[in-house]
Amino acid sequence: MTPNPHYEPVIGLEVHAQLSTRSKIFCGCSASFGAEPNSHTCPVCLGLPGALPVLNRQAVEYAMRLILAVNGEVRRESVFARKNYFYPDLPKGYQISQYDKPIGEGGEVVFRDDDGTIITIGLIRAHLEEDAGKSFHPENPGADPATLVDVNRCGVPLLEIVSKPDIRSAHHASLYMQKLRQTLEYLEICTGNMEEGALRCDANVSIRKAGETAFGTRTELKNMNSFRSVERAIAFEIERQIALVESGGAVIQETLLWDEKTQTAHPMRSKEESSDYRYFPEPDLLPLHIDNAWIARVRASLPELALSRAARLVREHGIPEYDATVLTDSKPLADYFEATVAAFPEPKKVSNWIMTEVLRALKDRNQGIAEFPIPPNGLAELLQLVEGGAISGTVAKDVFDSMLDTGRSAKEIVAAEGLTQISDDTALIAIIDNLIAAHPDQAAEFRAGKHRVLGFFVGQAMKQSGGKANP
Ligand code: ADP
Ligand code: MG
Ligand code: ZN
Q1: Which of 15, 204, 275 to mutate to test the pocket of ligand 1 (most atoms within 8 A of CB)?
Q2: What residues have CB less than 8 Å from 194, skipping those under 6 apart?
Q3: What is the spatial distance between Cα 243 and Cα 364, in angstroms, rounded to a whole number?
Q4: Which residues line ligand 1 (CB under 6 A)?
Q5: What is the CA radius of gyration of the chain?
Q6: What is the pLDDT of residues 18-59, one digit of tens each?
Q7: For the CA of 44, the nearest ligand
Q8: Residues pairing with 119 in the sheet
Q9: CA–CA separation, 468 vs 391, rounded Å?
């Protein structure tokens, strides 16, 4: 869909990142995903009378990591607030969140557009809150239509990161989220798994006539569970608003649910004003105080993030910037590259292998590098065999596939299957003599100065030797 040049979209994202703490934010229940429904509960996260919340220090520290990594400001005093609403997956009847004094303020997310342009999106705030439970609506309820509720997720820590309305296209919204996920992954504070709901996004969308400065009325989109659906939902909504305004209508502020099946969005409920939530300071929790020393400690513990790591890979290993960007896309992939280079110090050769064979294999196997069966040492051993002339580059690719299939090492496979490269003159000359005898015309052409036919002979020799001849 080409954007309509007469209108400018304005987008602000509210991203919820589930912090990967072991326990929930206000109680000792496990925060892990996928347990037996309603098995991770206690009086605190169920909101039973008299139970008191205790703040999880690790969740606070994870929030600080993200805020500092995006150059935001950690508030020295932040306050938890009750956000009151009724929903079956919220047994307490309120959610503990932060309101006018969030833990983080400001900061920015910086990413590159497809053409390399640097895009900077400002952040309004980042606040800590607890997650709600999950409702299940069986697809084929039969005679007993029921909604099932799993409250395991109640009290799982979330960091809500709210962007300024700085985003100007559906594609940028997706790139912004991808950069945020990458940052959360590098910080090791969120798995970023959108299918499991560890990273969720509500998109606020409005349009205005090109050249106008005031913002239009916005709608809020929910229920997108991949980067692609974020992009599609926003593009859909932009088009819907433009068509509405063009036909004389007006956008009303409401919440829309994205439907992945039909690729359309439908109104869910009219949007609450914040006054509907009756926010008030959480009486069971003291204000959270964070001193400079704590901030300094967290700042000092921050890892190198993708952009600076890419720059370092170029500097230290002399690989092209393109390679460095691909390799630092995820922290585990960059770790894999550096560990392989440590064992086989030929960075460009390692980079070539990872960017082609390894990434292809990951894609075929629908795997992440963390689950990849060939460890960095294993890949280094294979490259060493090629480098030392023990096997040819062609054979190396077969050995690589066989390492994946069998889990055996490169050396074992080469020895067991007799794949060692033939570099021995006597053996090669025998093959070559036979070829010359079998192709007298080509041999004559070569002697007459048509040296291009050499390629033909090399190809034939590789074929005859089962790829083992040293070309
Ligand atoms: P609320 O309190 O209703 O959540 P906020 O002011 O906190 O509203 O804004 C929520 C999100 O909506 C932010 O990401 C912000 O950038 C975005 N936003 C605000 N106004 C607009 C607008 N007119 N068009 C698009 N997005 C907007
Ligand atoms: Mg909001
Ligand atoms: Zn609990």
Answers
A1: 204
A2: 200, 225, 226, 227
A3: 41
A4: 10-14, 162-165, 204-206, 215-216, 218, 274
A5: 29
A6: 999 999 999 999 999 989 999 999 999 999 999 999 999 999
A7: 3
A8: 111
A9: 7
